[in-house]
Amino acid sequence: MNYKEIYDYGVGELARAGIEENKLDARLILEYVCHTGRNDLLVHGDREVKEEEQSLYREYIGKRKRHIPLQHITGEQEFMGLVFRVNRHVLIPRQDTEILVEEVLRHLHDGMEILDLCTGSGCILLSLLHYTNGCAGVGTDISEEALAVARENGAKLINGDKTEEETVSLRFVKSDLFENVEGKYDIIVSNPPYIPTGVIPSLMEEVRVYEPKEALDGKEDGLFFYREISSGAHRFLKGGGYLFFEIGYDQAEDVSHIMEADGYQDVTVVKDFAGLDRVVFGWRQAKSL
């Protein structure tokens, strides 16, 4: 089969399985298997595909038909222009979260210290360190499996090609929120679990079945982790330090009120590209531990 024919096979199989983005996923899987680019389908559609590549492509299409996320098949996801390793132990980085990173970058200066709670793949913290100079970061997660992914991403993306003198200060720590956190930080950032427990059964299969529930479940009203982080963060913020949250589209008012009640000032809501509320942040004076 040639490139176009095997692609058409993939589109048909995914469409019959009810995969909405069947054309996009079929193309991305083919590019991953054949190490090609997005223009190959148009320019080189008549080139023959090797038998071993055809076999692997059919295997991966079969997995996607079972609603296994594309990123779990390829083992990677692009975020902020960087490629992150992902697996079933971490949330797949999403474009919406880039809004959070970009907003933090507006307030982040060289040499600052960052704490990333519920770090998962490390995509937020590692992106912030990649696009700044001389900053230091600590990422925490309750899952040791997630931390293993974050450490692998950190080794590849941050310190992989640096000399000893250029090495960035970066640590990942197993911690239930602030449990094992030490020191004070200029920025605390978190994309915590924020989906109400009762909503999780209604999520699409790719999320409900294949992504870690502990990274999704925000308890009864979805606000549990915002309350915990907001009330505890002041003990770990430097004077004038900022707390940043990613939020669900309908949580801006509630999270803003939580932060204001905890003494944060200039609490601000930022929308994503779809016009939905996506980020809430504010600053406050730190108190002694």
Q: How would you explain this protein's 3D organization?
A:
- With 289 residues, the protein is α/β, with parallel strands linked by helices.
- The chain folds into two domains: 3-66; 77-284, Rossmann fold.
- Helices cover 39% and strands 19% of the residues.
- A seven-stranded mixed β-sheet has the order 5-4-3-6-7-9-8, sandwiched between helices. It has a two-stranded antiparallel sheet with strand order 1-2.
- Helix 1 (3-16) runs parallel beside helix 4, helix 2 (22-34) packs antiparallel against helix 4 (51-65) and helix 6 packs across helix 7.
- The termini are far apart.
- The model has no long low-confidence stretch (mean pLDDT 94).
Reconstruct the topology from this structure.
Blueprint: H1 3-16, H2 22-34, H3 40-43, H4 51-65, H5 70-74, E1 76-79, E2 82-85, H6 95-107, E3 113-117, H7 123-130, E4 136-141, H8 144-157, E5 170-174, E6 185-190, H9 205-210, H10 224-233, E7 237-246, H11 252-261, E8 265-271, E9 277-284
Parallel strand pairs: 3-4, 3-6, 4-5, 6-7
Antiparallel strand pairs: 1-2, 7-9, 8-9
